[in-house]
Amino acid sequence: MFNIAIPTTINSNGRNSILKDIVNDTLQYIAMNNNQTQIELELQFFNGITILEKFNIQSNIDSFLTLIVFDENDEPIILEKENVICVNQKNEKDDSIFRITFIFERNRKNNDLRVVMNPFMMLETEDLYNMKGELNIIKYYDNDSSKVYVADPSYMSFRKYLKGISEYSFNDLLIIELFDQVEKRIKLDSIKYKNIKGLINFKEIKNLGLDYINWLQPPH
Q: Is 176's pLDDT higher than 70?
């Protein structure tokens, strides 16, 4: 799912990625290329310098997956229908209904994933339980035959509630993570990167990702 979401190539000249918001007077062009095992990040600077940074795809996907891995005694129930994947987690207060923690919706045109976290976070358990019919929350029997309720992601009423909820592009999240790794590499090897030191505005990139950082924080 995540592998096919990463495009073969995108660059800062396009309109559909966060790369266009990262380029500036000093970092003038960015391209991200996917060769199936590695991601190559090409950075071109105003002074004619070009660097090519390589990243292992699977390690970055594994890092992202740590966000949705629960305790071994609290395995999620994952339902997939059409182009929507719904990740359900047991509710601590009421184990008769599941908490919906992640929604992944695949863009049928470019395979990018729309990521929505805690779409019904503002709903209390009782409210969510009372909306079973409207949201098409279905009865499900888990491995120990306990009866629980999970959301059917293919149901149109369910999708209606997702409209207007904060969402994130998986590829934009990946790009933010790659620049974080670039910053760490520069700090670890100042001699290798001396010609580009100070030419990437990592602070601004972090600002672009502030919502993402807040999004990672578990709800209280």
A: yes
Instruction: Give, for 178, the enclosing helix (H) or strand (E).
Output: helix 170-188
Nearest alpha-carbon partner for 150 in 86, 81, 92, 74: 86
One domain, residues 29 and 89: no
Distance CA 84, CA 106 (A): 6
Q: How far apart are CA 51 and CA 64, in angstroms?
A: 25
- Asked if 21 and 95 sit in the same domain, the reply is no
Q: Is 74 found in the same domain as 54?
A: no
Question: pLDDT of 26-46, one tens digit each?
Answer: 999 999 999 888 999 999 999
Q: What is the CA radius of gyration of the chain?
A: 20
Say whether 209 sits in a helix, a strand or coil: coil
Per-residue model confidence as pLDDT tens digits over 80-117: 888 888 888 776 666 666 677 778 888 888 888 888 87
Tens of pLDDT, residue by residue over 50-78, are: 999 999 988 887 777 666 555 556 667 78
Could you tell me what percentage of the chain is helix, strand and coil, using 3-state DSSP and rounding each to the nearest 5? 30, 30, 40
Question: Which range of residues forms the domain containing residue 77?
Answer: 63-168
Domain count, the chain: 2
